[in-house]
TrEMBL record:
Taxonomic source organism: Rosa chinensis
Recorded superkingdom: Eukaryota
Enzyme class: transferase
EC number of this enzyme: 2.7.7.49
Name of the protein described by the UniProt record: Putative RNA-directed DNA polymerase
């Protein structure tokens, strides 16, 4: 599923295991956008006429928050041209990524997610700046980008390694979650894991394959992949799961809005012993401070007002304050001791 912002061309791509989860992912992204950008409300949403994009609960939710839901004419893709153009662009970039590596065509999902991240860093025909810069306000930093499908040596977890054994293992780079976290595949099993970018060593000249050397026995064929196959649509029919997921997310948002602490584990929350509620904006000065200020000098201000100035100690503390680290004070000499000292000097 592809969600595109018409003003900044920011695209959000989600991989779906079933068509019934499309509306739940869409609603979650709308809630996230409204929370991250409260000053830029969503005015309208244009959806496809597919069966997975019809939900009575979603329409009621959009109507309650002031979002217009639009549907183009059936079989007229030009009315939804922005989303269709984004899908075509994603396919072109993802196809080049997959063909450059030794990964099978079944790894197109990772290529699509990586292509969506790359497209955010490029300006479009309607905007001289990239979508990333328009949304965040910062110029994109591409120092963390690496070639898709290249070899990466990730550190082995301390419980799984020995002092004299290997400290890293060979993996396949398939994108990143953030500039500091990468995604990689285990070559033998194909499982997806994450690692810290600073702990990894990349070799962008080597492209490993899944399954080790077993792939060399089979010829590599150029195949085309598609996101939608009409002949297989009957294997994923629309069920009541779509409507129930939308209602569940709306109910959770209502609970979160009414009770902000409803999702917090109260037993694990450390509360301060100081009552912070209804605290006055200005604290009262202790009596010692007032007495010291009264014994200080007075300054006449403009308008005839008189301001008391507290006498200050050598270290800047007013009289009457408590010195947590007092200095050693030199005892004062009496007059007899003073005359004795003068006689000794003579």
């Amino acid at each position: 599923m592809v969600l595109v912002d018409a003003s900044t061309r920011w695209s959000h791509v989600v991989l779906l295991s079933t068509r019934n989860a499309a509306f739940a992912k869409l609603l979650a992204q709308i809630i996230r956008l409204r929370a991250h950008h409260p000053d830029h409300p969503i005015k309208s949403i244009r959806l496809d006429n597919a069966g997975e994009f019809t939900s009575k609960a979603f329409d009621d939710y959009c109507m309650s928050i002031g979002i217009d839901v639009e549907h183009p004419v059936p079989h007229v893709h030009t009315q939804n041209g922005l989303a269709e153009a984004t899908i075509k662009r994603l396919q072109m970039v993802a196809r080049a990524l997959v063909m450059r590596t030794n990964l099978p065509i079944s790894a197109w999902g990772y290529a699509i997610l990586h292509a969506a991240l790359l497209i955010r860093f490029r300006p479009t025909a309607s905007q001289p700046f990239s979508a990333y810069q328009l949304v965040t306000g910062y110029e994109p930093d591409i120092s963390h980008l690496r070639i898709f499908g290249c070899a990466v040596y990730v550190p082995i977890a301390p419980p799984q390694r020995t002092k004299m054994g290997p400290q890293r293992r060979l993996s396949i780079y398939v994108g990143y979650e953030s500039p500091t976290i990468i995604r990689y595949l285990e070559p033998l099993t194909g499982d997806l894991f994450t690692a810290r970018f600073a702990d990894c060593h990349f070799d962008e000249t080597v492209f490993s394959s899944l399954g080790g050397d077993r792939k060399k026995d089979f010829p590599r064929e150029r195949q085309e992949f598609s996101w939608f196959v009409p002949t297989l649509s009957h294997f994923d029919p629309r069920t009541s799961q779509c409507e129930s997921e939308v209602k569940r997310i709306i109910d959770l948002q209502n609970v979160a809005d009414s009770m902000p602490d409803a999702f917090s584990d109260i037993a694990k929350v450390t509360r301060s012993h100081i009552p912070a509620a209804n605290v006055p904006a200005r604290l009262e000065v202790p009596n010692k401070g007032h007495d010291a200020a009264n014994r200080g000098t007075t300054t006449t201000l403009s308008g005839g007002m008189v301001e008391a100035v507290a006498p200050q100690r050598k270290r800047g503390r007013p009289l009457g304050s408590i010195d947590t680290h007092p200095r050693k004070k030199r005892a004062t000499m009496s007059m007899n001791q003073y005359w004795r000292m003068l006689r000794c000097l003579k």
